[in-house]
Amino acid sequence: MSLCLLFFASAALAQRKKNVLFIVVDDLRPALGCYGDPNAFSPFIDDLARHATLFRSAYCQQAVCAPSRASFMTGKKPDHTKVWNLETHFRTALPNVVTLPQYFKNHGYYARQIGKIYHDPLAAQDPPSWSAPGLYGVTTNLGKYVLDSNLVHAPKATVSEAADVPDSAYIDGMVAAAAVKELQHMSSKPFFLAVGFRRPHLPFSVPLAYWQEPKQNIPAFT
């Protein structure tokens, strides 16, 4: 269902709490160079994996978006959350459950959501998890397609799109830019920043550059 990456960065605070950057990538299987896929070109994640802990036996609880996300955000199995479909909210069965970001919020962190973290309809969001309203958490037609030939048929158009546009034209580019801006303006309070990217979930709509032969001179992760 998704790949989760968790980063800790030192915070310049007397209590020396760690900042947390939590990244979720929708529908990203282990089809990556760091997992041995010979066809994947994933230099940044591969380099990160070399400097981090790579889990080779980590599995989603259920191969459906809402149940899986509810599971890793609450730490509960679907049999406990009672979420087996795309409509049920985990707080129906567990109204008082403390989610991962909510735990950090309750312990003095500023918790913020940018992009898809929970399942994407408005009804699936969870305001108690966050310190402030999220950005780009609810899926709309914004940034899904940019070509007129697809926009007239949105939200269900072609399965792929390759427009010669910058990253910022598509939703994931918008999410990345918003996350960078958020990081640049974080206060002295420790933070839990959750950033959710929608690709490689359908539709495969990304700038043309990502469909072309990859460049090999990409700088290493630092």
List its salient traits.
222 residues; alpha/beta; 4-stranded mixed β-sheet; two-stranded parallel sheet; 23% helix; 18% strand
Strand order of the largest sheet: 1-2-5-3
Number of helices: 7
Major sheet details = 4 strands, mixed
Shape: globular
Question: How would you sum up this structure, described in words?
Answer:
- It is a single chain.
- By secondary structure, the chain is an alpha/beta fold.
- Helix content is 23%, strand content 18%.
- It is built from 7 helices and 6 strands.
- The chain has a 4-stranded mixed β-sheet, with helices on both faces. Strands 4-6 form a two-stranded parallel ribbon.
Task: Give a quick summary of the entry.
By secondary structure, the protein is an alpha/beta fold. The protein has helices at about 45-50, 65-75, 80, 90-95, 100-105, 150, 170-185, and strands at about 1-10, 20-25, 110-115, 160-165, 190-195, 205. The strands form two sheets. It has a four-stranded mixed β-sheet, with helices on both faces. A two-stranded parallel sheet has the order 4-6.
